[in-house]
Design brief:
By secondary structure, the chain is mainly α. Helices cover 74% and strands 0% of the residues. The chain has a single domain, classed as Orthogonal Bundle (MetI-like fold), CATH 1.10.3720.10. Helix 1 packs across helix 12 and helix 3 runs parallel beside helix 6. This is ABC transporter permease.
Length: 276
């Protein structure tokens, strides 16, 4: 029994170290590359021989990077906000109302998550072209709302399921209509679930490459992911040092946001895990 316990602990520790290596080593290598000079970038050294901050300085003083950052913030904030609101209304409808076709509609929304986004791009591109929305931020925002909606709706429904129906009935007795109940009572106490949906939507749009690269073609309208690739990578240049430095810089907003809001994010995701 003792030997089995020791063996289990060794396997468990080895598994943690192995997982930690695959998770954290790419992050370490990104920092390592960002501190290297152009001549040293392709040398397989674990530590830079001559550490330099010139890559960070060049990235911060690059007007294009700041423009990409501004564009991404604009798209991510709007798409996250509207996706959260639509998910909240849909989740409340599925949780508190009973009507014909409710389950079918829920299943339809969830099934949309099954299709690969690269396949959906074919139809979305044709649709946006027909409506004249190519090279327009509205095409990106609408696409991101659609992609966040299944997970966001399920998250919000699970959160609303935990709210007692007696709370709504009491408000009705006091004379509150449905609109007032939703906006003055339900939504304020559902902030954790809404924040978790908003974070999910923000990160989705912030990290997107495929749709941002396809639907937006003007250089001045590009968001971060395609902007970084097209600015630092190309047929005649591979500026890995500045690319890694810029990647670190643009990841800071999402990292800070998650650190500040992680309590609400975890609470929102686990709200429907236990019923009692």
């Amino acid at each position: 029994m003792f030997e089995n316990t020791i063996g289990f602990k060794l396997v468990f520790i080895f598994s943690l170290v192995l997982i930690g290596f695959f998770v954290f080593f790419p992050l370490y290598w990104m920092f390592n590359t960002a501190l290297k000079t152009p001549e040293e970038v392709f040398l397989p050294t674990l530590f830079p021989n001559n550490p330099t901050l010139s890559n960070f300085t060049s990235a911060l003083t690059d007007g294009l990077l700041l423009n990409y950052l501004k564009n991404s913030l604009f798209v991510a904030i709007l798409s996250s906000f509207f996706a959260t609101m639509v998910s909240a209304y849909a989740g409340y409808s599925f949780s508190k109302f009973r009507y014909r076709g409710r389950k079918t509609f829920m299943v339809s929304i969830l099934i949309s998550q099954v299709f690969p986004h690269a396949v959906l791009l074919l139809s979305i591109y044709v649709m946006m072209q027909a409506f004249g929305l190519l090279d327009n931020y509205l095409s990106l925002i609408l696409s991101f709302i659609v992609f966040v909606l299944p997970v966001g709706t399920l998250t919000m429904k699970a959160y609303f399921d935990q709210l007692p129906d007696a709370l709504i009935e009491s408000a009705k007795i006091d004379g509150a209509n449905q609109c007032r109940i939703i906006h003055k009572i339900i939504f304020p106490i559902s902030i954790p679930g809404m924040i978790s949906t908003a974070i999910y939507g923000f990160v989705w749009s912030w990290n997107d490459l495929l749709y941002s690269l396809t639907l937006i073609t003007s250089p001045e309208k590009r968001t971060l992911a395609p902007g970084l690739i097209l600015n630092y990578m190309g047929e005649f240049q591979q500026n890995w040092g500045e690319m890694m430095a810029a990647s670190i810089i643009v990841s800071l907003p999402v990292t800070v946001m998650f650190i500040l809001l992680q309590r609400f994010f975890i609470q929102g995701l686990t709200s429907g895990a236990v019923k009692g």
